[in-house]
Design brief:
The protein is built from eight helices and five strands; from the N terminus they run E-H-E-H-H-H-E-H-E-H-H-E-H. It is an alpha/beta fold and 177 residues long. Helix 1 crosses helix 8, helix 2 crosses helix 4 and helix 3 packs across helix 4.
């Protein structure tokens, strides 16, 4: 099966884009983010797509972006937080090197903040985030080959654990202790 060397899934704010960029650099490949693909294709932020066209339209754009990226991209791929909601997407991820980056509510509040332009967290962000994770955690776990916590860890430490867990060689020299 061709496609990405690593696929990152997890909730908004967990660090998929940041960790993805580090992994790509260490592996000597590029990093692609399906949310960014959608923004570039449509020409407006995701929050505006949600407001203007609604979540169902956004989810269709998301399924299409994931399908295209899985077919074309051979580097590190970061998926939007809700991409795993689609049965089609979970089926496409089967057998791939998927890593679920997880964090708890307290960490999410620190990272995402309560005033960020996140369309699914507009009303009562803490409760909404908890509800989203209750719905999504089983789906993230279902598609993941590896689960890595980002709590109280640097993006570099998270990247190290992913490379070790997937047994991928880094092109970067080992750090001196």
């Amino acid at each position: 099966m061709t496609g990405p060397v690593i696929v990152l899934v997890g909730p908004m704010g967990v660090g998929k884009s940041t960790v993805g960029a580090i992994l790509a650099e260490r592996l000597g490949v590029t990093c692609r983010d399906t949310d960014q693909d959608i923004v570039e294709r449509v020409g407006k932020p995701i929050s505006e797509i949600f407001l203007d066209e609604g979540e169902p339209h956004f989810r269709e754009l998301e399924r299409s972006a994931v399908r295209t990226a899985l077919a074309e991209h051979t580097g590190v791929l970061a998926l939007g937080g809700g991409a795993v909601l689609a049965d089609e997407t979970r089926q496409m991820l089967a057998g791939r090197p998927v890593v679920f980056l997880e964090m708890g509510l307290t960490e999410a509040v620190k990272r995402v903040g309560l005033d960020a332009p996140r369309p699914l967290l507009v009303i009562n962000p803490r409760q909404q985030w908890r509800k989203l994770m209750e719905e999504r955690r089983p789906l993230y776990t279902e598609v993941a080959r590896v689960v890595v916590s980002t709590e109280d860890r640097s993006p570099e430490e998270v990247a190290d654990e992913i490379l070790t867990a997937l047994q991928l060689p880094s092109t970067q020299p080992e750090k001196q202790q």
